[in-house]
Amino acid sequence: MSAPNHPTAARRRPVPLRRAAALLVVAAVATVLSGCGLRLETPPPAEPSPDAVEQVRGRTVDDALGLAQDARTLLDTAPAEPVAAVLADVAAFGELHAEQLGGVYDSGLPEPTPSASPSSTPDTAAPTAESVLAELAEDAATALADADAVPDGPLARLVGSVATARTDLAGRLAAALGLPAPEIALRAGVDGTPEGGADPSPTPSASPTAGSATDDEPAPAGLDRADLDALTLAHDEAGYALEVVAAKLDGDPRTLARQTAARHRDAAERWATAAGTAGQLDDPRRVAYALPAGLDDPTVAAGVARGAVSAVADTYATLVASADAGARAELLTGLADATRQARAWGATPVAFPGMPELAAEPLPTPTAG
């Protein structure tokens, strides 16, 4: 009798072999697609989000290039002097500012494809000298706020210098137009504080006063004893030089020298008090300072006064980089004031006040147009 005829059980394929077969199929499909020039879709690279430092740098560059472009456009209309001379500096300084700040940011990503039906843009009104003046005041205030608030010290120094140059240009353009100089101050944000969250006082303006702070006011955060000694010494030396110059001059120049000397002596006392050195053995102030010969010549005397207050501006600009973000307002005030004083003694307008290392920067060649 033969054995019962039982059906043979179906053999199950092991799970690992099934997965391997699936992977082989996916690989084969990918190979076919690549051979046909097709690619599985991937998201396009995204533009990186700028941090606080890059936002300040980019904003200052954009404002500088906008000022330069508007000034160049106006120069093409051949404006009369002295407006034309100021506009030429607005254009040249703006281009130098943009260059020194690193220019327009380029991520290296491709430009987005324009739409098939581009939307119409409203016509922009042609710039006027008055609109450039308003633009200078607006952009100077923006740069002041950014210089106070940006966390990067060296960038704060550069942006503060740019703000000071714009303030000086605004004053010059206003004078050329027969208008009052605009008031330029740290701009308050929507919550009443300057942009960047800094304390709103003190407020730099187009004509700040050196040493206007009270003697018992604390030093800006971030400055050490050596920094305060540098400010004390710079102001005291300027005060001494201006006192000697006043003794050599007559009339209005003498009055200006005497008044400015007194303000610098007051400022020296303010910083010595903040450092804790006032009246102490380690007070950095001296009885006298070396001055060049020939001070009986008014031209030489004016040059000494100009050099002394320019040294004060340089000291303030240097310490802007050392102070903490949000604590630079008084230093920016000092930079603006000393720059204004140097201009009163005949200093040539420069693109980077307080930054003598950039004084040799050549002016850009005007573009044809």
Which structural traits does this protein have?
9 helices, 0% strand, 2 domains, globular, single chain, 369 residues, mainly alpha
Describe what is shown at a glance.
The protein is mainly alpha-helical. It has helices spanning 15-35, 52-75, 83-100, 129-149, 153-177, 225-248, 251-275, 298-320, 329-344.
Can you give a write-up of this model?
The protein is an all-alpha fold and 369 residues long. The protein folds into 2 domains: 53-104 and 128-207, no CATH class; 211-356, Ferritin, core subunit, four-helix bundle (Ferritin). 53% of the residues lie in helices and 0% in strands. The longest helix is centred in the middle third of the chain and has 25 residues, at 153-177. The chain is globular. The termini are far apart. Residues 1-26 and 188-214 have low confidence and may be disordered.
Please give the number of β-strands. 0
Overall geometry: globular
> Helix-strand pattern, N to C?
HHHHHHHHH
Task: Report, as a whole number of angstroms, the end-to-end distance.
Answer: 113 Å
Q: Return the domain count.
A: 2
Kindly state the percentage of residues in helix: 40-55%
Q: Mind describing the biggest β-sheet?
A: none
Low-confidence stretches: 1-26, 188-214
Q: Give the rounded overall mean pLDDT.
A: 83
Could you state the oligomeric state of the chains shown?
single chain
